[in-house]
Amino acid sequence: xxxRPLAWDYAIRNLFRRPMxxxxxxxxxxxxxxxVFVVVGFIRGLEKNLExxxxxxxxxxxxxxxxxxxxxxxxxxRSSDLIAASIPGIRQRQGQKYVSPxxxxxxxxxxxxMAQPAMGLVRGITPEVLLVRSRIQIEExxxxxxxxxxxxxxxxxxxxxxxxxxxxxxxxxxxxRSWKVSGIFSxxxxxxxxxxxCRLDELxxxxxxxxxxxxxxxxxxxxxFSDVDLFCKERLDLELQATRETEYYAGLQxxxxxxxxxxxxxxxxxxxxGILAGLNTMYGAVVGRIPELAMLxxxxxxxxxxxxxxxxxxxxxxxxxxxxxxxxALTIFNGASVRFTMGAFALRIDNVCILVGCGVGxxxxxxxxxxxxVRALRMAVVDGLKxx
Length: 388
Hints:
This protein is an alpha+beta fold. Helices cover 49% and strands 20% of the residues. The chain contains 13 helices and 14 strands. The strands form 3 sheets. Strands 1, 4, 5, 6, 7, 8, 9, 10, 11 and 12 form a 10-stranded mixed beta sheet that branches. A two-stranded antiparallel ribbon has the order 2-3. Strand 4 and strand 5 (118-125) form a beta hairpin. It is elongated, with a radius of gyration of 30 Å. The two termini are 33 Å apart. The model has no long low-confidence stretch (mean pLDDT 86).
């Protein structure tokens, strides 16, 4: 051993010698790490929401030039039958092709408990939607009949309500009609969970429309996307364009890129503020122990050994704060609902989030203990023994 370190329990006993200072430092570190958990959980939740919303074998066909604004798309009602009859390679079972005509829009949705309606997402569908959207599962209730709607489990959050505010048997209102909630569906955390689904023909009657917003289809293993793209380019009279569903949601992820970068900037700023707070706290703790540190040098402990012990104290505090923040985040914040423009999603405290949060915590403990320890140890031993 090229230098003799201090005993392992010396740093631990020092933490309990000043319990109030230790508790305050622990609380400050825990708050900083919790903020990091919340911001990273927001990023992970948003990414997961868009990632699971698309399937690689699903193709969306909608109006030419609409980009990613499906709610403004309008294509003829006959497009659905033409697509099913003209494009080869569409998956089918017992003669039923996996083609789903849909009418999708953002409109004001209200409930009797709401003082004012809020902007919600409504999709008119047919039973074929379950062939194309294979991740949809009805959690409670039944498939909607006339005058009924099927509500995603995050639809209430999208309307500014609590997650379980809308239940089967309740009533929602949109497009001048009241609709009875027949059931609740989930979509493995995807964007569909923020929507309200009703029968396509009833939504068209309510809106006095005879068109569609899009047609979604699933390709068979032998199917080729180029056949769908070729159909859209040949039928100039229909003015259609096609895109894979995964590419559509990848485009939305790119649109939300600035928000994710802003969130990472918040993580950086919070970490910086935490390091400054840690420096201030550790400066106070170390400066008050200058005579003690000088005495250790008098007893023969080299400065590297004392520096290692001070870093050990900082890391012990950071580890305790990281553990406490992780427990709080998993208990309180994991799965918390967040409302945003295109729907709602849940905060996701996953392994990546825990890795980033705990990494920031240990960084705070390490960097926060270095400058004050170096400053104290640079002082001459005689001056350190004389200081009060």
